[in-house]
Design a protein that fits this description.
Length: 308
Amino acid sequence: MLTNSSAFLKKADKGNYAIGGFNVNNMELLQAIVEAGVEKKSPLIIQTSQGAIKYAGIEMLGAMVHSIAKDVKIPIAFHLDHGTDVDLVKEAINSGLYTSVMIDASSKPFDENVRITRSIVKAAHKKGIWVEAELGSIPGKEDDVDVLDKDAFFTDPEEAGAFVELTECDALAVSIGTKHGVFKYSGGRAKLDVKRLIEIKKYTQVPLVLHGASEIPTELKKVVEQYGADLSDAFGVSARVLKKSIANGVNKVNTDSDLRIAFTGGVDRFMTKNPNNMDPRKYLAAGREATKKAVMRRIDQLGSTNKA
């Protein structure tokens, strides 16, 4: 069932677990995520980036999510991820398709970020739509988001408190050391500023969101590397570090890169074993199954199993 994510994120906040925000670009990714959520009895946040909308169209993506959500009993929210284009965020709000949106004005000065975010919150709340905002700048590249390391900065806890109060946003994406993209931590693993996270939570008292927090697990890397990819210098946020962040205030964790690697590996494996196959349904189904397994693993890591 399609719902606003506010209620189950508040429940996650009280229960010290997190809900996965999973990005989709096509039908097979969507099916994989929902099938995993149903088996794990977990709430889900299905997300579309601005890049996904350019690829498939807002109406097509929305129709697929609404169609699949009505046939399952788990709560599913439909969310616009990283809305840097204010006009597109407004289009999503007015479309009647999304139950939540993210306005990302984190690249702007504090006062401008507040002004832009506040205007989106007012428009969204009139329609019962929940709003995620961002303070601090997360480095890395993913779809339309591209922030150089030199332009990134961590979230200031006191500023975060003032920002939430001024904008009345419903959740806040924070920068504490995560990075977007597959190649997050060249030559090493994530070191997140958990002390900063604890302080941010004290000042904000809203669900906090981690972007750029994919795990990039070794077993997924090994699959795609069998077929020519080189992810030897790609590292993500370990399950141990992620769980520590969740225990200290994170209630929504975005996951995209892990799904891309899993899907690609499933397709690569199938086509290598079946080089004469000309039926896209078969290799897309293989990608779907690999992605489903990755999502189920992620749900367990977040602690949202049996929380639907």
